[in-house]
Amino acid sequence: MPRKGRNGGRNVFRVLIPIIPAALLVAFIVYLITIPPNPPPTTVPTTASQGDLAPDFTLRIIDGEGLKDQSFSLSEVKGRPIFIDFIHEWCPHCNNMASTIDRLHSQYGDRVFFITVAGSSNTTPEKTAEYIRRHHISWTTVYDDGLNVFRQFGVRGTPTYIVIGPNGIIVGKLEGEQPYTVLEQLVKNVIGG
Question: Which of 11, 77, 133, 166 is the one with CA 20 to 30 A from 110?
Fold first, then answer.
């Protein structure tokens, strides 16, 4: 019976040497094809905070009857002090604060532009319109379908209040229920009173 020599093992080795680099190259190409591309860099700030220039936005107006065909852009009131009230209609703290914001608007609405940005999370425009009716909101209210403006301003919870100076710089940001006097002082700081 013939005995296998050492050459049999060398033949296998000779066959594998050129295959291994080719297999590694194929594996690398498959890896490059299957990894997801890097997302493009964003040009919209996602967490504007005190001291930052307030990002502009455009959203559809909503009132007690529902969404309107009209939109509002923050740039429309450039040069004026602005008070932004971020809410969700289902938020108990927002409901608790509605009369406080109404009182603040009654006192300072002639010198400060008030806007409510209503979030779309777990709600509908119809429910938001009901909130507007229930609380007799008479100032501009917009509907943030997709919460993009919430993200731009770094809103993590509602209510959140942001005050913007006439120069467009965010001068104050408060989260949660606040006493009237705290909100009033924030407004007075921006109007110089």
Answer: 133
